[in-house]
Amino acid sequence: MELILKETIDTLGQEGEIVKVKPGYGRNYLIPRQLAVPATKGNLAILKQNKASIEARRQAQKAAAEALAKQVAGASVVISQRVGEGERLYGSVTSADIAAKLAELGIEIDKKKIALDEPIKTLGVTAVKVKVGYHMNVDLNVEIVPEAAAE
């Protein structure tokens, strides 16, 4: 089944692209959620007319992602946590903790965009990938320090 994407879907393609998907996925998920439309002659003609506006939106998204990437790359995140014997953390640092710390710095990023394989459970500096958009990732260094040392 051929569909025209109305929105960018990370695993499928970008807005305005014609993609082939299995009929059930298109019929039951993409079309009802208005993420795509069937690739008919009429819809292809509409796509051709809207190509310039779609390209302008892509460029705006790319510019916004690059600006956010510069902010995140220049940021330094230090999180203080309680530690017990042997310098082990009582809890762990999650993507929500990192997102909250970035918000304090004035950088708004959804916690789902912070790619942690598993929560951070050790002291020290850890490199974390942040998805800033438009297929761009930025490395962010997160430093975990003992609570007493941060004060």
Walk me through the structure:
The chain has 151 residues and is α+β, with helices and mostly antiparallel strands. It folds into 2 domains: 2-65, Ribosomal Protein L9, domain 1; 71-150, Ribosomal protein L9, C-terminal domain (Ribosomal Protein L9, domain 2, Roll). It has 4 helices and 7 strands. It has helices at residues 23-30, 41-74, 95-104, 147-150, and strands spanning 2-5, 18-20, 36-38, 77-81, 114-115, 124-133, 136-146. The strands form 2 sheets. Strands 4-7-6-5 form a 4-stranded mixed beta sheet. A 3-stranded antiparallel beta sheet has the order 2-1-3, covered by helices on one side. A hairpin with an 8-residue loop joins β5 and β6 (124-133). The longest helix has 34 residues, at 41-74. The model has no long low-confidence stretch (mean pLDDT 90).
* Inertia-based shape: elongated
CATH superfamily of the largest domain: Ribosomal protein L9, C-terminal domain
Number of helices: 4
Q: Give the class from helix and strand content and strand pairing.
A: alpha+beta
- The tally of strands reads 7
Q: How many structural domains? A: 2
CATH architect. name of the largest domain: Roll
CATH topology of the largest domain: Ribosomal Protein L9, domain 2
Helical amount: 25-40%
How are the strands ordered across the major sheet? 4-7-6-5
Major sheet, described briefly? Answer: 4 strands, mixed
Mean pLDDT over the residues? 90
The proportion of strand residues reads 25-35%
- Helices and strands, in order, run as EEHEHEHEEEH
N→C terminal distance: 60 Å
Radius of gyration over alpha carbons?
A: 21 Å
The CATH top-level class label of the largest domain: Alpha Beta
Query: What are the segments in which pLDDT stays under 50 over at least 5 consecutive residues?
Result: none
